[in-house]
Amino acid sequence: MSGKPRLTYLNGRGRMESIRWLLAAAGVEFEEVFLQTKEQYDKLIKDGLLLFQQVPLVEIDGMKMVQTRAILSYIAGKYNLYGKDLKERALIDMYVEGISDLMQMILMFPFSPPDAKEKNLDSIKEKATNRYFPVFEKVLKQHGQDFLVGNKFSWADVQLIEAILAVEEKIPAVLSGFPQLQAFKTKMSNMPTIKKFLQPGSPRKPPPDDHYVETVMKVFKR
Amino acid sequence: MSKKPKLYYFNGRGKMESVRWLLAAAGVEFEEEFLETREQYEKLLQGGSLLFQQVPMVEIDGMRMVQTRAILCYIAAKYNLYGKDLKERALIDMYVGGTDDLMGFIMMFPFLSAEDKEKQCAFIVQKATSRYFPAYEKVLKDHGQDFLVGNSFSWADVHLLEAILMVEEKKSDVLSGFPQLQAFKARISNIPTIKKFLEPGSQRKPVPDDKYVETVRRVLRMYYDLKAN
């Protein structure tokens, strides 16, 4: 049995993508099991592997972890991406939770009805440019450091670069008013582990398409 | 200047209630400023105290913390309610994630139409009794200890008690199939700090009513059109 973490989810981004990003950023190799049928999912539940009958599921260090936030916190803590003390952790948690609210809008987007898609896209653009990006632009400008917290690479940086790229996929010029974030994006993208994750052939998943949406509906159908 | 944490929110439960519970459980006194008008909210916004333009906001240890989860994690760690190591923290985080999802279904309840309220109530009870309560019942049964994690009182216990009481407000006999949870509820309710919080006159807020809903909608100019799960 390999000691690598094992991720169980659909073959797509969803809630597992942030976990793939964080493990990759930490230089940790992992295995993946992809759910493709309702029967596979029902079996996971029947076998008692899913504490709340939900995925993501990450088997790591002898635990069967569920709840995305719990999994990310554990990985961040284990691989020293969670700041050096309680106050730095508080900052990282605030930033990550904010970004997560923005990512939630992107996560739900493929599942919105066709007549709501334009409105939802506008909403993502509005929130990114008026609520979230200005905060991080200001944080980086004020301390002038390369990383968001404590002059050191952390979970917050990984979450932010993931979000920037996800929003840019929808709104290509979204960083045009944010020079600090543009520089941040370049710096993060060039960090060796992240650079590797951004190359073809990595475990990074493509943007969700109709097939992904169909699979989600099929596997989780009540 | 008082060193007590200061909570900025509406005079009602919402997302701040879990913070009140946790501070109370830790025996920490706190102050509250209640948002009642749009002007107050705009003043907070203009003053730059709301990082993402949202409440809850808690002034604590020189920080203006926002994001409920971040605030709770900080309080839990500061007051030793977050386990003794990374693995215990992982368990606490998982358990809190579950109760958080359950309480999320309840949080939107007052904002729903009468018809959707009925639907949502059934949904809450169904999820509580088939997904969440069985998980915690099993955890307690399997280790036979008084507390969820590490044989020591933690954030997970506080959060679970809060969730149990909230679901009971919707269906009073909801714990009838869960003997471990019944015993847990009695035990945790009797912890001195929690007992005090459950008494009249504490800072615990009542079940949200129409006035609360009206205030939130007026101050935030949001949540006019929520639908049941």
TrEMBL record, chain A:
<dbReference type="GO" id="GO:0004364">
    <property type="term" value="F:glutathione transferase activity"/>
</dbReference>
<dbReference type="InterPro" id="IPR036282">
    <property type="entry name" value="Glutathione-S-Trfase_C_sf"/>
</dbReference>
<dbReference type="InterPro" id="IPR010987">
    <property type="entry name" value="Glutathione-S-Trfase_C-like"/>
</dbReference>
<dbReference type="InterPro" id="IPR004045">
    <property type="entry name" value="Glutathione_S-Trfase_N"/>
</dbReference>
<dbReference type="InterPro" id="IPR003080">
    <property type="entry name" value="GST_alpha"/>
</dbReference>
<feature type="domain" description="GST N-terminal">
    <location>
        <begin position="3"/>
        <end position="83"/>
    </location>
</feature>
<dbReference type="GO" id="GO:0006749">
    <property type="term" value="P:glutathione metabolic process"/>
</dbReference>
<keyword id="KW-0808">Transferase</keyword>
<dbReference type="InterPro" id="IPR036249">
    <property type="entry name" value="Thioredoxin-like_sf"/>
</dbReference>
<dbReference type="InterPro" id="IPR050213">
    <property type="entry name" value="GST_superfamily"/>
</dbReference>
<dbReference type="InterPro" id="IPR004046">
    <property type="entry name" value="GST_C"/>
</dbReference>
<dbReference type="InterPro" id="IPR040079">
    <property type="entry name" value="Glutathione_S-Trfase"/>
</dbReference>
<feature type="domain" description="GST C-terminal">
    <location>
        <begin position="85"/>
        <end position="209"/>
    </location>
</feature>
<dbReference type="Pfam" id="PF02798">
    <property type="entry name" value="GST_N"/>
</dbReference>
<protein>
    <recommendedName>
        <fullName>glutathione transferase</fullName>
        <ecNumber>2.5.1.18</ecNumber>
    </recommendedName>
</protein>
<comment type="similarity">
    <text>Belongs to the GST superfamily. Alpha family.</text>
</comment>
<dbReference type="Pfam" id="PF14497">
    <property type="entry name" value="GST_C_3"/>
</dbReference>
From TrEMBL, chain B:
<feature type="domain" description="GST C-terminal">
    <location>
        <begin position="85"/>
        <end position="209"/>
    </location>
</feature>
<comment type="similarity">
    <text>Belongs to the GST superfamily. Alpha family.</text>
</comment>
<dbReference type="InterPro" id="IPR003080">
    <property type="entry name" value="GST_alpha"/>
</dbReference>
<keyword id="KW-0808">Transferase</keyword>
<dbReference type="InterPro" id="IPR004046">
    <property type="entry name" value="GST_C"/>
</dbReference>
<dbReference type="InterPro" id="IPR010987">
    <property type="entry name" value="Glutathione-S-Trfase_C-like"/>
</dbReference>
<dbReference type="InterPro" id="IPR050213">
    <property type="entry name" value="GST_superfamily"/>
</dbReference>
<dbReference type="GO" id="GO:0004364">
    <property type="term" value="F:glutathione transferase activity"/>
</dbReference>
<dbReference type="InterPro" id="IPR036282">
    <property type="entry name" value="Glutathione-S-Trfase_C_sf"/>
</dbReference>
<dbReference type="InterPro" id="IPR004045">
    <property type="entry name" value="Glutathione_S-Trfase_N"/>
</dbReference>
<protein>
    <recommendedName>
        <fullName>glutathione transferase</fullName>
        <ecNumber>2.5.1.18</ecNumber>
    </recommendedName>
</protein>
<dbReference type="GO" id="GO:0006805">
    <property type="term" value="P:xenobiotic metabolic process"/>
</dbReference>
<dbReference type="InterPro" id="IPR036249">
    <property type="entry name" value="Thioredoxin-like_sf"/>
</dbReference>
<feature type="domain" description="GST N-terminal">
    <location>
        <begin position="3"/>
        <end position="83"/>
    </location>
</feature>
<dbReference type="Pfam" id="PF14497">
    <property type="entry name" value="GST_C_3"/>
</dbReference>
<dbReference type="Pfam" id="PF02798">
    <property type="entry name" value="GST_N"/>
</dbReference>
<dbReference type="GO" id="GO:0006749">
    <property type="term" value="P:glutathione metabolic process"/>
</dbReference>
<dbReference type="InterPro" id="IPR040079">
    <property type="entry name" value="Glutathione_S-Trfase"/>
</dbReference>
